[in-house]
Amino acid sequence: MQYPVNEIFETIQGEGHFTGVPAVFLRLQGCPVGCAWCDTRHTWEVLAEDQVEPGLVIGAGDGEPRWAQWPLEQLVAHLTGPQYRARHLVITGGEPCMYDLRPLTERMIAAGWRCQIETSGCFEVKTDPQTWVTVSPKVGMKGGLEVQRSALERANEIKHPVAMQKHVDELDALLAGVALEGKEVALQPISQQHRANELCVRVCIERNWRLSVQTHKYLNID
Ligand SMILES: C[S@@+](CC[C@H](N)C(=O)[O-])C[C@H]1O[C@@H](n2cnc3c(N)ncnc32)[C@H](O)[C@@H]1O
Ligand SMILES: Nc1nc2[nH]cc(C(=O)O)c2c(=O)[nH]1
Ligand code: SF4
Ligand SMILES: [Mg+2]
């Protein structure tokens, strides 16, 4: 088992349920969803010309499309090594659910870590059952993929990106018939837009939903 890795870095989880928790981020390369406002467009393509040696993706990149193939055993050894103090792994991307995350999450949970994935919901979620799954549903994006009902059902947290009322309406349609007991629903303003912030605050209060702010962007950290 190998994973295409764009970057591995330690920071504070900036969004969602675990906001404020020190975490190691594993960003996988590759995403076919095509969100117009994606803040990690450099992770979309997995091109041979961008492949580098594994050591070169340790540390936060500068938005480069570089990636390295990391074998499972090497990845677990690195993540559980002396370099990191955090015990919370966030697997993001790109779209991490293009890959089978069971071997990695099983090994990390066995090593005493908590695992979280950030996913669009457009692929089946393959993780250890203890992994916290954050689904950020993507509706009507360029790639033509659809949110999988199984991903919504697996979600611990549904964190919906919102810039306008249409996005709230899309979430309502998506959640119709999904049992929400035990799940958190949050709205996340797109790209710190003032109008998106205001809309999310208003709807969160009306619906008793959570607000997820990308705090790392206000803090200017990775
Ligand atoms: C970059 S994505 C990677 C993981 C996965 N592909 C997904 O979309 O969930 C990580 C998170 O950032 C959110 N995101 C991406 N671009 C954003 C933007 N411009 N403003 C707000 N949230 C954004 C996504 O919705 C998702 O919750
Ligand atoms: N600090 C920080 N928190 C994050 N939460 C989700 C992120 C992501 O890109 O998936 C992210 C990120 O890139 N940085
Ligand atoms: S699904 Fe995630 S990584 Fe892919 S384009 Fe959308 S926000 Fe970006
Ligand atoms: Mg990010």
TrEMBL record:
Mg(2+) binds at T40. It comes from the Bacteria. It catalyses: 6-carboxy-5,6,7,8-tetrahydropterin + H(+) = 7-carboxy-7-carbaguanine + NH4(+). [4Fe-4S] cluster binds at C31, C35, C38. Its EC number is 4.3.99.3. Binds 1 [4Fe-4S] cluster. The cluster is coordinated with 3 cysteines and an exchangeable S-adenosyl-L-methionine. Binds 1 S-adenosyl-L-methionine per subunit. The keyword 4Fe-4S applies. InterPro entries: 7-CO-7-deazaguanine_synth-like, Aldolase_TIM, rSAM, rSAM_QueE_proteobac, rSAM_sf. Homodimer. Belongs to the radical SAM superfamily. 7-carboxy-7-deazaguanine synthase family. Catalyzes the complex heterocyclic radical-mediated conversion of 6-carboxy-5,6,7,8-tetrahydropterin (CPH4) to 7-carboxy-7-deazaguanine (CDG), a step common to the biosynthetic pathways of all 7-deazapurine-containing compounds. This is 7-carboxy-7-deazaguanine synthase. It comes from Ferrimonas balearica (strain DSM 9799 / CCM 4581 / KCTC 23876 / PAT). The lineage of its organism: Bacteria, Pseudomonadati, Pseudomonadota, Gammaproteobacteria, Alteromonadales.
